[in-house]
Structure formats: structure tokens, C-alpha cells
Amino acid sequence: MTHLDSIANQTILVQTTYHPAPHLEIEMEIMERLLAQGNTVYWIICKSDFKNCFNNPEHKVMDCKVCFSRVNNGLNALKNGIENHKNLHVLQYNQFLKLDDFKKNNFKKEFSCSTVNDLKTIHYKSYDSGMATASSLVSFTRNHEPQVENHRDFIYRGLLTGAYLYETFQLILDKIKPDLVVLFNGRFIENRPLLRVCQERKVNYATHERGGKINNFLFRINSIPHSIETISNEMEHLWENAKNDRNQIGKLFYTNRIKRVEDAWYSFTKEQQEGRLPESFNANEDKKVITIFNSSLDEYEGLEGFGPFFYPNDNEGIKQICESLESYSNIKLYLRVHPNLKGLDNSQNKFLKEKISKFTSIEIIPAEDSVDTYALIHKSDIVIVFGSTVGAEAAFANKNVILLGRAAYENLNCVVIPKNHEELIQILTDDQYEFPTINPEGPLKYGYWNESFGIENKYYKPIHLGKGKYKGKQIKANFILRELRRFLEKRGNSKQ
């Protein structure tokens, strides 16, 4: 495992794509540390070159101006705050290839797709531009099956941006010849092309993201943040090299979750009423209680290697389970809808309402319901998950857990993974089935990893999850630009 602080005397290319805190500050932290270690850093900055990006999916002019202003102020803070700023060089995309020239000579506006699955199959040369565009579209709409016809402009801008960047990065790498490329996340329209170019040309790359704690950031060499294989190896490495307090730290992860502590990310359960169960629980005497905890499908759409093992997706899996358990009156089946789906009018929620709610074999607990997830776990005989953290939390509580989709804890011997639907139903309906004894070290290992992964910031100090100071100062966009954007947004809302 290569640590950031061991990289020295190399040529580094850093791409900036997502400016809200803490991500710009993480890039600044990475660059300052790399510069201090004798590296030469090239920072490539967007100046409205992305026609579609995660931070500005509608390509609003003022959002571009505010973004560039904040990044530029971050650059000035670096230049004024470090001695070796002469080794920091700023690049812009149009130095290598102008978008208008690329569009005129290389890119056709026409594309053929009627569904998001069609979109995923589109490639620009060897680059999976359709998958990156689909991933960004799903995140933008919070819908894993968005209506393509309603977003053709978004898709066009996404495919154009991805193809342009794919070609531009070839030229940049030819010119700079970096030893290492650093980029954010690797999932979206604006950074997936660089990831793919590095992979194709066998150039070392690193992705960055938030870390396991609010004051940590992730920095992974030759891996995306979501790689289960990388996470599994990292988990083992951290556990084996942990100090004597690793069990206590592992437990802390779960107790903080129960207490709704917001450290690494927002708590989805903080609005739930502690101890509250569904009213129907009073009628569950002598019944086997099975609770399904689904995932928010848009969260892993477009990520490599994610999703259910043998179902097309969570929704279809739940549907088949309901169909198979329809005649079992001795089983009480609940579906706890992921709180992150609260208030969304999307395909996943529509499917649950129109398809799943019609089964008499299941009771749906809506995303906005105040039923306590942890009380539900403790009162369930079997917990079914498709990959959410709830699976590890239930295993920590020594519950019988069935995992139906890829998860970071899948190899920790704390869950049962059926081979197919038929085996799943046999496990659920056979009262003689004995779940394997949970190895308590498994959930603790996962908890310790969550509490420990990442690198601690030296220069950035978070105030909360979306705000902080770099060397004691907040990095803000120009005040006039911020106020003008706020004025235009209010004016736009007032006209609606």
C-alpha cells in the first residue's frame, strides 16, 4: 500500500473537478504535501471546459464562474503559503485541444438510445462514455431508471464532455509524462475519461475521496474508492497492523451509528424514534420475523462490480421473495425502505408502491417512517440486505444476516450468502436451518476499517461535513460572484 507521504521526486498530474468542501481542500492538501516532498505538480483546472459535471450538471454560467473563482483562490492560497510553489504549474484544457475544434472535427451530435441501459453501451473509441454519463445522470436525477427522452441534452453534453476529455488527456499525458495522476472518485463524466486513459496506458493513478472520519481523506493508488477488492485488502492490512485497542475502535463504529453520530457522513436514522416498532409487531407472536433492508439503487449505479449476486436489482429480488413467501402464514416479512429514498418520486419508489405493496406477504415501512432501524434489527429473526451497512450492524448485534449483493464485509464470515433464489427461500422457510455462528472478529474488523481508513489532514480542519478551514482560512469564491449567483437563483425561483 503506497502512502502519500512516500511519494517523492516525481512528476504528478492532478485534475480538479469537484470544488465543494472538503474536496478542493483535499486536493490542496495532497498537492502541498507532494510539493514538500520534492515533486513537480501540474494542476489541470477547468474553466467552463466541462459541459456537464457532477458539481454543475446543468452547466449554469454562474456556477462555472463561482467554481473557477474558488479553485483560483485555492491556487493563490497555495502559492502564497508554500516556499516551493515554483514547482506547481497550472494547466488548462484548451492549451492542448479546443472543444470547438474537437466538436467540429471528431464528434457527432446524434446518438441512439431509448433507455439508460442503451446509454450504458455507448463507447467513444475504447472509452465507456455511456456508462460514465449514465452514472452522472442517475446521480443527478436520483433515479436508477431515468427517462432518457427527458434528458437528451444532459446526455449529449455528457457524451461530448467525456469524449473531449478522453482525447485531451492523451495529449496532456504525452506532454507531461507524469509518474502519477491524481483525480477525484473516478465515477463521473469529468473524471472517468482520465481514469480510463491511465488504465489503458498503464500510467499509475490515485483517486481521492472523503475518508472514514471527518478529518481523514482517502488516497488510493490504482484503485477507485468503491473497489470491494481493494477495500477487503485494506481492511485486512489495517486490522493486522492495528494497535491493542482495535476491538474497542471497531465497537465504537457501531455505537456511534446507533447514537446517530455524524462524523464521516450524514446519519440517515437521526429522525427515527428510538425503540419504535411497527404497530403490527404486537401480532407477531409465534411468527418468524424477517426484515429486508433495501439499498438506494442510484447510489451504486455505474459502479463496477456492485449489485445483487443473482437478481437483476434490489426491486426484482424483493418481488421474487414476496412471491415465494406469499403462502407462508407463519412468516412476517417487513421491508424497511432506505431513509435516503425519502421524498423521491423515482422509479425505485414507484416500483415499491405499484408492485411490492400489492403482496400480502410483506409490510412496507416507508423511508420517512420513524420506525427505529436498530429496534427492528434486534426484533427480527432474520435480516436480509443487498449490500448496505445495516448487514454488518446486524451481524455485530449477533443477528442472522443474509447478504444478497456485493458488500465490503462479504468476506468476513459474518453473513450467509445464498447461491440462488431457491436456496434463499429454503433458508427462510426451513425452521430447522441453522445459521453459522458469527465470528465476532468479522464485524469488528469492518467497524475498525470504517473508523480508521484514510490519511489524516495536516492543513485542512473541518468545521462540519461540508465546511472547513485550510491553514486557518476558509477558501471561498469571490464575494460578488457568490452574491450574484444567489440573487439570480432567487430571481429564477420567484419566476417559477
Which sequence of strands runs across the widest sheet?
A: 3-2-1-4-5-6-12
The profile of the biggest β sheet is: 7 strands, mixed
Q: What name does CATH use for the topology of the largest domain?
A: Rossmann fold
Counting DSSP H or I runs of 4 or more residues, the number of helices is 16
Tell me the overall shape: globular
Give the CATH level 1 class of the largest domain. Alpha Beta
Pfam family, one: Capsule_synth
InterPro entries: Capsule_polysaccharide_synth (IPR007833), TagF_C (IPR043148)
Protein name: Capsule biosynthesis protein
Organism: Flavobacterium psychrotolerans
What's this model, at a glance?
The chain is of the alpha/beta class and 496 residues long.
Topology, please?
Layout: E1 11-15, H1 23-36, E2 40-45, H2 61-81, E3 88-92, H3 99-106, H4 116-120, H5 129-141, H6 152-176, E4 180-184, H7 192-201, E5 205-210, E6 216-221, H8 228-240, H9 246-258, E7 288-293, H10 314-325, E8 331-336, H11 347-354, E9 362-365, H12 373-379, E10 382-385, H13 390-396, E11 400-403, H14 421-429, H15 441-452, E12 455-456, E13 460-464, E14 467-470, H16 479-495
Helix pairs in contact: 1-2, 2-16, 5-6, 6-7, 8-15, 9-15, 13-15
Question: How would you sum up this structure, described in words?
Answer:
- The protein is an alpha/beta fold and 496 residues long.
- The chain has two domains: 4-229 and 455-494, Rossmann fold (3-Layer(aba) Sandwich), CATH 3.40.50; 247-451, Rossmann fold.
- 39% of the residues lie in helices and 14% in strands.
- The protein is built from 16 helices and 14 strands.
- It has helices at residues 23-36, 61-81, 99-106, 116-120, 129-141, 152-176, 192-201, 228-240, 246-258, 314-325, 347-354, 373-379, 390-396, 421-429, 441-452, 479-495, and strands spanning 11-15, 40-45, 88-92, 180-184, 205-210, 216-221, 288-293, 331-336, 362-365, 382-385, 400-403, 455-456, 460-464, 467-470.
- It has a seven-stranded mixed sheet, with helices on both faces. A five-stranded parallel sheet has the order 9-8-7-10-11, sandwiched between helices.
- Helix 1 (23-36) runs parallel beside helix 2 (61-81) and helix 5 (129-141) packs across helix 6.
- The longest helix has 25 residues, at 152-176.
- The protein is globular.
- The mean pLDDT is 92.
